[in-house]
Design a protein that fits this description.
The chain has one domain: Rossmann fold. The chain contains five helices and five strands. The chain has a five-stranded parallel beta sheet with strand order 2-1-3-4-5. It starts with a strand and ends with a helix.
């Protein structure tokens, strides 16, 4: 299966996590595009890298994938990619583009909301309902890495079964 790995990619911790996850997915036999590895568009010493070049490179990689796996976040680029891939899977070619799977590992999502605590005092995590609704309508949301790997096996198995019919 060809996977595009999406998520925040700007801090050292985010980059490290993305690279580790790309490696773990490859160990399981997947072909993975991880934008942090994309050269030359991530070479920050170059002055000829434009938003349009980044867009074209990432769109090409999205269109080469079967599944878009994204970290559930409020990162606008991640959410834009998820919407683009969802459109490919629902309106372009569902046999080629299988859908979007969210990985929600933010520990704040485990906090029970407290109605007596308003605004910033309420420690419950928040995910934009439009984003979570789209993920749930597509391939779903998983909450840890092992669940991610198992869900990807299910997805791949389901599509292998369709290909042999």
């Amino acid at each position: 299966m060809r996977i595009y790995w999406g998520g925040p990619m700007f801090t050292a911790a985010e980059v490290a996590y993305n690279l580790v996850m790309a490696a773990k997915l490859r160990e399981r036999g997947h072909v993975v595009y991880c934008p942090n590895e994309s050269e030359p568009i991530n070479d920050k010493t170059r002055t000829d890298i434009t938003a349009e070049k980044i867009y074209r490179a990432d769109i090409e990689a999205l269109e080469d994938a079967n599944v878009y796996v994204c970290q559930v976040s409020e990162d606008s680029g991640t959410n834009w990619e998820a919407g683009y891939f969802d459109c490919l899977s629902r309106h372009v070619d569902s046999a080629r583009y299988w859908g979007v799977l969210g990985l929600a590992t933010d520990i704040r999502l485990n906090v029970v909301p407290r109605p007596d605590q308003a605004r910033a005092e309420n420690m419950a995590g928040y995910v934009n309902p439009f984003v979570s609704g789209g993920l749930l309508r597509s391939l779903g949301i998983v909450y840890d890495e092992e669940e991610l790997f198992a869900r990807l096996e299910e997805i791949e198995g389901a599509h292998r079964g369709k290909a042999s019919e």
